[in-house]
Write a structure and sequence with these properties.
By secondary structure, the chain is an alpha/beta fold. The chain contains eight helices and 16 strands.
């Protein structure tokens, strides 16, 4: 089978398509025939060596939508089921950017029925990051939340999920994104400076760090999206950062919200698996609204 990997760190040109053996699922694992796999900034980080792993072959791809192709013992899944999953890990030898991928059975959920596989592939990593970050914030209905990067993939899901929880959401994004961010349910839109101390909490997918921390009221809460990289606490503000984890049960809840129309999936462009390096180059250009998705 074909797989997108890196064997030496670098720019988009470091992405290689290699021929490799089809992986076999072990106990409590399934193999998915990939129909679509989203490209995320995490993949660019792996490619560039942000997470280490020098000297190893590193597989790319965290998000997958496809069909159960084989199942190990005690999985609860059967061949032929349409599924989505998070292929978690920054140091795996094979990822979801491949013809087949093996994942733990408890990382899998039945695919949404309201969208195609390309759109379904945009859900696992970004929506799980958003919902797990909101869990860390632990806000109550009526409290105010500022989401930075509200027009981005994680930020967009976070806005919709926060609105569903009854939070008063302000979306921070570029001026041209106001209509879109408001369509997600944000009651307030800002672009540029926000008055310090104006919100109970900040969720920071845009990675503004200390600048965004200043917008949290005394005693509020700040959650970032880069593990262990949150700014130090000031003024009694609790600071934390989400480290996404694979969770099939939670993913199933998110899939249900997609089918209910609560969560909006967005695809910016699709690329053939063979053109994975071109997809990385497009991601590096910036300005992408929605996810780039690889199709084997």
């Amino acid at each position: 089978m074909r797989a997108a990997v890196v064997t030496a760190f670098g720019g988009p040109e470091a992405v290689e398509i290699v021929e490799t053996a089809v992986p076999e699922p072990g106990a409590r694992q399934i193999r998915i025939k990939v129909a679509a796999a989203a490209l995320n900034p995490a993949d660019a980080g792996v490619r560039a060596g942000v997470f280490g792993g020098a000297g190893k072959r590193l597989g790319l791809g965290w998000d997958v939508a496809g069909t159960v192709d084989a199942a190990g013992v005690a999985t609860g899944w059967t061949v032929g089921q349409q599924v989505v999953a998070l292929a978690y890990g920054v140091a795996k030898s094979l990822g979801a950017h491949a013809d087949y991928v093996v994942v733990d059975a408890d990382a899998v959920a039945v695919a949404p029925t309201s969208v195609d596989a390309v759109h379904a592939a945009t859900v696992p990593l970004n929506a799980l990051t958003a919902v797990q970050a909101l869990d860390l914030l632990a806000l109550e209905a009526g409290q105010s939340l500022l989401v930075t990067g509200a027009a981005g993939a994680v930020g967009g899901y976070a806005v919709q999920l926060a609105v569903q929880r009854g939070l008063a959401v302000t979306g921070l994004a570029r001026e041209g994104d106001e209509e879109f961010v408001r369509s997600l349910g944000a009651g307030r839109f800002v672009s540029g400076e926000v008055a310090p101390g104006s919100v109970d909490a900040v969720l920071d997918p845009a990675i503004l760090g200390e600048a965004a921390l200043e917008w949290v009221r005394d005693g509020g809460v700040f959650v970032g999206t880069i593990p262990h990289a949150q700014p130090a606490s000031v003024r009694g503000v609790r600071t934390d950062a989400v480290e996404v984890s694979a969770d099939g049960a939670r993913l199933a809840e998110l899939v249900a919200l997609v089918d209910e129309g609560v969560l909006t999936t967005r695809v910016a462009e699709t690329f053939a698996l063979a053109d994975a390096a071109k997809a990385h180059a497009r991601l590096a250009e910036g300005g992408v609204r929605g996810r780039l998705v690889l199709v084997p």
